[in-house]
Design goal:
The protein has 14 helices and no strands. It is an all-alpha fold.
Length: 359
């Protein structure tokens, strides 16, 4: 009796870290359009006293960040809760916990809080422009702090991508630029966005340097939990408890489970898994694709047609991505060639010492 042949696997067993990063960036790029769509849905279901003029949108930006993270935390515990066992936790050093706390504060609470406050003070396009400081800043920090070797084309690609975002803003029609940006002046909102970008860059470097061996479940649950608590108190101080009046709305929670599951859980898990096996320069390259992913998501989800400025800027960003990708490929091939040469030299040396050569 012969055994039946195994069916071919439809999904590869191993997915590269680069693939995880690209999938995460597609999700993150769509997050702004998804958030805008959710707030539009919430605007059709106002809550509060209609006669007192105190109607509120239950899916406000603050509620999206807070309740969305709570829903994500619940899902993360259900998925990765088993990793929180005594055996695994004992393997973490005090330095690991300090690094986890720093990352949770920087990327889970500080950066979202700063960007949220910046959105209240300046236009969205200004936030996008200033936010593009993050990929080249991360690349510079990786060279300085991690001693990561970066190909010249990777640097050229990062610069090209950043210039592409600048052109996207500058080439807008004057009326639209003034309406969306309020001018190109550097105000408090822009400074807060800069601080948010610095926080994200710092968390990326810490994650790559100190947390590469931390299980995804421990990393994700701790970061989300600490970040959510700290963000809640920051929002409470800045906006008051009235801002969370609709936090227990079932309508809000049903949408936030969808948002938290897709944007936070899946996106964050993919990014962490990708960052573990990828270089910081690769993460910086993928991060440069954010504006293009955002424009595509806005078109598909919100029906916003890209402007000429966005086409021009997006094209230059694509050029930057291609240059960076070529640089990474050349660096990879160079490492492989160098490894082969070293291996051959070592083998020749062994054979010489054993007397097989030089007769």
């Amino acid at each position: 009796m012969t055994r039946p042949k195994r069916l071919p696997r439809l999904i590869p067993i191993k997915i590269s870290g680069q693939t995880y990063l690209w999938l995460a960036m597609l999700i993150f790029g769509a997050s702004s359009a998804v958030t805008r769509k959710l707030t539009e849905i919430g605007a059709q279901h106002f809550m509060g006293d209609a006669y007192g003029g105190k109607l509120r949108n239950p899916i406000s930006l603050c509620n999206v960040l807070f309740v969305g993270n709570l829903c994500a935390l619940i899902l993360l515990i259900l998925i990765y809760g088993r990793q929180w066992n005594k055996t695994t936790l004992k393997q973490l050093s005090q330095k690991d916990w300090v690094s986890l706390t720093a990352v949770a504060i920087l990327s889970g609470a500080l950066a979202p809080g700063l960007i949220f406050q910046a959105l209240a003070l300046t236009g969205v396009n200004n936030i996008i422009l200033v936010g593009r400081l993050e990929p080249p800043l991360t690349l510079a920090l990786s060279i300085w702090l991690l001693s990561e070797r970066v190909h010249l084309w990777e640097i050229a690609g990062a610069i090209a991508a950043f210039v592409g975002v600048i052109l996207t803003i500058i080439l807008q029609p004057p009326q639209e630029a003034m309406m969306n940006m309020g001018g190109l002046s550097l105000g408090i909102g822009e400074l807060l966005a800069v601080a948010g970008s610095v926080a994200i860059s710092a968390s990326t470097i810490i994650s790559k340097k100190q947390l590469s061996q931390i299980p995804v479940g421990i990393y994700s649950i701790f970061r989300t939990a600490i970040g959510t608590v700290i963000f809640f108190f920051i929002a409470l101080i800045l906006y008051g408890k009235e801002h969370f009046a609709d936090v227990l709305s079932p309508f809000l929670w049903q949408w936030m489970f969808l948002y938290g599951g897709l944007i936070v859980v899946v996106g964050q898990s993919f990014w962490i898994k990708g960052l573990k096996t990828s270089t910081v320069s690769m993460a910086s390259l993928v991060g440069s694709f954010g504006p293009i992913a955002g424009i595509l998501a806005a078109y598909l989800i919100l029906g916003e047609v890209p402007t000429l400025a966005q086409y021009i800027g997006g094209s230059l960003i694509l050029v930057g991505i291609i240059l960076s990708h070529l640089g990474i490929r050349r660096k990879t091939h160079s490492k492989i060639a160098s490894a082969k040469v070293n291996s051959m030299q070592t083998q020749q040396q062994v054979e010489t010492n054993m007397g097989f050569k030089g007769i």
